[in-house]
Amino acid sequence: MLQIRAYKPRRDREAVRNLLRELLSSEKEKESEWPAPDEIFELYYNRMMKLCRKHAGKIFIADEGGEVAGFVTVLGNVLPSYPDEYPLQYAKITELVVNRSYQNRGIGRRLIAAAESYARQRGVSSIRLEASGANSEGRRFYTREGYRELVIEFIKKFDQPGKGK
Fold first, then answer.
1. 98-102, 103-107, 122-126, 132-136: which has the minimum mean pLDDT?
2. What is the rounded distance in angstroms from the CA atom of residue 153 to the CA atom of residue 130?
3. CA 143 to CA 86: how far, in whole Å?
4. Which residues make Cβ contacts (< 8 Å) with residue 41, sequence separation at least 6?
5. Is residue 160 part of a domain?
6. Residue 109: which residues within 8 A CB-CB, separation 6 or more?
7. pLDDT per position as a tens digit, 21-69
8. pTM (whole model) above 0.70
């Protein structure tokens, strides 16, 4: 039976690391120009843990009979970084990963609900997340869960970086 519970470092660390590798690999499949997962994994993992410490973050685990089926990372209090942003603290989901063999069973929805519940407990007025533009499936999921697009970022790659025009 599926249980959503708090992350336990000794018990869950390796499973979370494996799921994070799965997330990075999936992102690389969608965005071929992104760095190889092995090149950035340790930096990414360490940053995730550092942000949790800095912003009252929590990791929630989807536990299916002792197996880690997925996890969500939520930062409990993030301050706006631009002057034109609404000037209130918000929560932010930085990772949401469900093991491929457990997808389409409502686990992502339950993890999002846990993150939102934690955000409400922290007293923030909103929760945010980011999704790759190439992650159309994820973007549809977030829209169904009541999220809306806030900012859309564009990129233009140069043929020869650092060469004049």
1. 132-136
2. 11
3. 21
4. 17, 20, 21, 24
5. no
6. 145
7. 998 988 888 887 788 888 888 999 999 999 999 999 999 999 999 999 9
8. yes
Domain that holds residue 123: 2-144
Q: What pLDDT, in 10s, does the model give residues 3-24? A: 999 999 999 999 999 999 998 9
Q: Which of 131, 113, 120, 37 is nearest to 70 (CA)?
A: 113
Q: Does 157 fall in a domain?
A: no
Q: Could you tell me where the DSSP H helices lie in the chain?
A: 9-30, 37-54, 107-122, 136-144
Pairwise CA distance, residues 163 & 165, whole Å: 6
Cα–Cα distance measured from residue 84 to residue 92, given in angstroms and rounded to the nearest whole number = 18
Is 163 within a domain?
no
- The phi and psi torsions of 55 (rounded to 5 degrees) equal -120, 35
